[in-house]
Amino acid sequence: MNEFAKAAGDILGRIRESRPVIHNITNFVVMNTTANVLLALGAAPIMAHAIEEMDDISGISSALVINIGTLSKTWVESMTYAARLARIAGKPLVLDPVGSGATKLRTDTACEIARFSAPTAIRGNASEILSLTAAGGRTRGVDSVNTTEEAIEAAKSLAGERGNVLAVTGKNDFVTNGTLSLFISGGSPMMTSVTGTGCSASVMVAAFLAVEKDALLATVSALALFKVVAEQASSKSQGPGSFWVNVLDRLHNITPEEFQSSARIEPA
Amino acid sequence: MNEFAKAAGDILGRIRESRPVIHNITNFVVMNTTANVLLALGAAPIMAHAIEEMDDISGISSALVINIGTLSKTWVESMTYAARLARIAGKPLVLDPVGSGATKLRTDTACEIARFSAPTAIRGNASEILSLTAAGGRTRGVDSVNTTEEAIEAAKSLAGERGNVLAVTGKNDFVTNGTLSLFISGGSPMMTSVTGTGCSASVMVAAFLAVEKDALLATVSALALFKVVAEQASSKSQGPGSFWVNVLDRLHNITPEEFQSSARIEPA
Amino acid sequence: MNEFAKAAGDILGRIRESRPVIHNITNFVVMNTTANVLLALGAAPIMAHAIEEMDDISGISSALVINIGTLSKTWVESMTYAARLARIAGKPLVLDPVGSGATKLRTDTACEIARFSAPTAIRGNASEILSLTAAGGRTRGVDSVNTTEEAIEAAKSLAGERGNVLAVTGKNDFVTNGTLSLFISGGSPMMTSVTGTGCSASVMVAAFLAVEKDALLATVSALALFKVVAEQASSKSQGPGSFWVNVLDRLHNITPEEFQSSARIEPA
Question: What's the whole-model pTM score?
Answer without folding.
Answer: 0.97
